[in-house]
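Bumping my old thread because nobody answered last time. Still need a sequence for this structure:
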């Protein structure tokens, strides 16, 4: 079973899309094992996006992600990392396929609604950074009908 870390960015929260986006994950069969609204500090933003430090869009990215509350969550399921990335769509919403979250709700790269872990190592690091050990291991009554 794999876990992926997701952020519903300030634009998703401000636009009232928390429910719609979380519902997509639930409907797909993914299980939520952590979820919290967070006013991201400058320090957390810089640590989360450390890999992009020095890039031309870095300052704007930090400004964007700290500008209003986000919702951070961890979802769990078979192949969760790739499943979630596919649901999210490409980085640039204008190029993202319809049916993806960015392709359905966004237009610009600097307002692309959502972050999702891009691989197993980043998922582990991001979950540790944002939630530490604060994940809930719980039995969902539908688990046997979703997981073989
Ligand atoms: P990803 O979120 O699809 O993994 P990354 O390339 O890792 O995309 O970039 C991280 C975030 O930085 C993007 O989601 C977006 O918010 C922002 N970003 C990336 N490229 C640009 C850009 O060219 N202009 C403005 N923001 C950008
Ligand atoms: Mg990325």
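Sorry it took so long. Here it is:
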């Amino acid at each position: 079973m794999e876990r992926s870390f997701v952020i519903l960015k300030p634009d998703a929260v401000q636009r009232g899309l928390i429910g719609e986006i979380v519902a997509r994950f639930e409907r797909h069969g993914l299980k939520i094992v952590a979820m919290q609204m967070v006013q991201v500090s400058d320090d957390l933003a810089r640590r989360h996006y450390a890999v992009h430090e020095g890039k031309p869009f870095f300052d704007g990215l930090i400004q964007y992600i700290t500008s209003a509350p986000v919702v951070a969550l961890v979802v769990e399921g078979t192949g969760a990392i790739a499943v979630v990335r596919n649901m999210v769509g490409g980085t640039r919403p204008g190029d993202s396929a319809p049916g993806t979250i960015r392709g359905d709700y966004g237009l610009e790269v600097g307002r692309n609604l959502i972050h999702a872990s891009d691989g197993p190592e980043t998922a582990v690091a991001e979950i540790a950074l944002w939630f530490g050990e604060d994940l809930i291991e719980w039995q969902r009554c539908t688990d046997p009908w979703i997981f073989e």
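The longest strand covers residues 31-38. Let me know if any region looks off to you.
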